[in-house]
Amino acid sequence: DGSNGWAIDGSILKMPENKLYFLFSSWDANFQNMFIAPMSDPWTISGNRTLLSAPTYGWERFGLPINEGPQVLIHEGKLHIIYSASGYWTHQYALGRLTYDGVGSIMNQNSWTKSATPVFQQAGDIVGTGHASFVKSPDGTEDWIVYHAHHDRDNWQDDRDILIQQ
By CB distance 3.0 to 4.6 Å, which of 31, 81, 92, 163 could disulfide with 65? Predict the structure, then answer.
């Protein structure tokens, strides 16, 4: 976008009437935040970015204050953005959720409700859960989450496993 800033974890949100938006993470001040920008086609940002989410909750600030990895999830007719929060190298890396209220501009932060707690996080030996995507089961009857977690909960070596579950 026009800020010419560093950005990672881009994904595209396609709304009715083929309106496209680019979701991504970028640094702003001392935080890694999530932004949205309009697109004119699937490869061109056509306007300035707008802040969607900053790491405001304590559970989003382990290691560093980070919101990243935005992924679109439409479930039961509701639009959500699932994102990763905190440092990926921490056990507390977890998934958060923004839900579009259905009123107002999709590019307005106030049109979204942010979950005050993680919606998916460490459990048992599975720690550092984050950066998810969502797929259907091979027969199309179930929704599955695909995510990564630390390979060894007791010895962080930057190794991560890809996990999938219903």
Answer: 31
CA atoms within 13 A on the CB side of 157: 6
The pTM assigned to this predicted structure is 0.93
| Element (DSSP H or E) covering residue 126 | none
Residue burial 40-57, b: 16+ Cβ < 10 Å; e: rest: eeeeebeeebbbbbbbeb
Distance CA 42, CA 124 (A): 40
Dist CA 94 CA 62 (whole Å) = 10
Among residues 104, 37, 112, 50, the alpha carbon closest in space to that of 80 is found at 112
88: alpha, beta or left, given left = phi > 0 and alpha = psi -120 to 50?
alpha
CA proximity to 13, closest of 98, 94, 103, 93: 98
**Spatial distance between the Cα atoms of 135 and 71, rounded to a whole number of angstroms:** 12
CA-CA-CA-CA torsion sign (102, 103, 108, 111): negative
Q: CA–CA separation, 138 vs 140, rounded Å?
A: 5
**68-91 per-position pLDDT tens digit:** 999 999 988 899 999 999 999 999
Q: What is the pLDDT of residues 28-72, one digit of tens each?
A: 777 899 999 999 999 999 999 999 999 999 999 999 999 999 999
